[in-house]
Design a protein that fits this description.
Length: 180
């Protein structure tokens, strides 16, 4: 399952709410560019702030990133999982998402409305870098570079192939220079 971060250059996750049973891998694709984004686990009752640790377990946090992909594994589909972007002002502009949010009560729409209500009062957060683990969904690795997320896994493979080609050409070029 794929979620695009900052899709279309907007302060959104797309899709912003997904239904994902246990074992679902959700891969977030971060765009290239000057504006970093994050996928930071939040708490419905305290929008635009990282969720408090539960039983010694912190919420997941990608850290502020560009041009990476990052995967969460859903481990508790019985509770909704809320997340937001901690890049300054983004959450208050409504850059939030959810996994398995209910259709009534604490819905995605209610979560986003609560974030927008925080708006300009949003507190700037420190970037403490990637946090693996998570509550109800866990990251097992830090973000990894992509080609910018425009073409997903195949793009990453293409980038790998072209990088290898560049290395080969570089070696050939170096050899030629030595011969010359
Ligand atoms: Cu953002």
């Amino acid at each position: 399952m794929r979620i695009d971060v900052g899709a279309g250059g907007n302060f959104v996750f797309n899709p912003a709410n997904v239904t994902a049973p246990n074992g679902t891998l959700i891969t977030f694709f971060f765009p290239s560019g000057d504006i970093p984004h994050s996928v930071t686990q939040g708490d419905f009752s305290n929008p635009c702030q990282p969720i408090a640790a539960q039983g010694g377990q912190n919420g997941f946090d990608s850290g502020l990133q560009n041009s990476v992909q990052w995967t969460l594994n859903v481990t508790n589909d019985q509770e909704p999982i809320y997340f937001f972007c901690k890049s300054p002002t983004h959450c208050g502009l409504g850059m939030v998402g959810s996994v398995n949010a209910p259709s009534t009560g604490n819905t995605f729409d209610a979560w986003q409305a609560a974030a927008v209500k925080v708006g300009a009062s949003e507190q700037t957060l420190q970037d403490n870098g990637p946090v693996t683990g998570g509550i109800g969904a866990v990251a097992t690795a830090s973000p990894a570079a992509t080609s910018g997320g425009s073409s997903g896994t195949s793009g990453a493979l293409q980038l790998g192939a072209s990088s290898a080609l560049t290395v080969i050409l570089g070696v050939v070029g170096g050899a030629m220079m030595l011969v010359a």
